[in-house]
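G., the chain you wanted modeled:
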Amino acid sequence: MTNSAPAFDALRAACAAVALDARGAEPIRIAENQIWRLPRGVIARIAPPDRALSAAREISVARWLASSGIAVVKPLSVEQPVEAAGRVVTFWEELRAHEHGTTEDVAAALRALHALPLPDLDIGRLDPFVRISERLSAAQTLPADDRRWLLGLYEDLLERWTAGLPAGLPERAVHGDAWPGNVVRLAQGGWVLMDLERFSVGPPEWDLVSTAVRARTTGAVTPAEYDAFCGIYGHDVTAWAGYSILSGVRELRMVTYAAQHAASNSRWRAEAQHRVDCLRGRCGPRPWRWTGIL
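Predicted structure as tokens:
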């Protein structure tokens, strides 16, 4: 668990910079990126110091999406992001009562998003391997042989990605981490897109693979739910020749994410090892049952 004290120092300084009051702030999520609730319906997102560019891009993307008619979380109308006390802070309007969306919500959101023309602003290009090497280095609870195997898988997938994907859908602005936790449903109805950290230009298939992997790899999405997802979006990414590349990267991300957390929290060690065992063929065929890492 990340220590919240230094982050609160950053929050207090960032609030002062944009004339907000940090008194009464409550932590919602304390992790690599911290989420805090301020009085009067404001949410502060606190990121590590190396995220200044991505935070600025998130603000620009959110404003572009809103102007394009996409339901999206709204940044406050202040000069941001704010760099304070070694952190990067952004401020957002708090969403009204909401919960995780459905796979159908994800499909509808992605269909609307991928229908947009590319924006004029620079949103960068998709890097599906971001932070994987750092996570592999941190995965010290895994046996050395498993770490070597994962490194080999990483290098193989990177080589296949670099060589170029098979022909597919035209490149679009992609969300980068499209799952029901990032396409939330409001209590009064309708979905809202959030968490824009991975937004970039890339193959739309990367967004679609998230749901396909949850159906085919982890079993979190039922066959009926996946059929409905494909029907709403209008495309089944599993029939694409490049599916094995992008699904392999998504699986590797999920494994290394668990392994990174296991290194600092023993409660996730068994799950991290289980995910590795699945990829290495020790747990039978897909779909496997993976427990979410909080």
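The two ends are 10 Å apart (CA to CA).

Shout if anything looks off.
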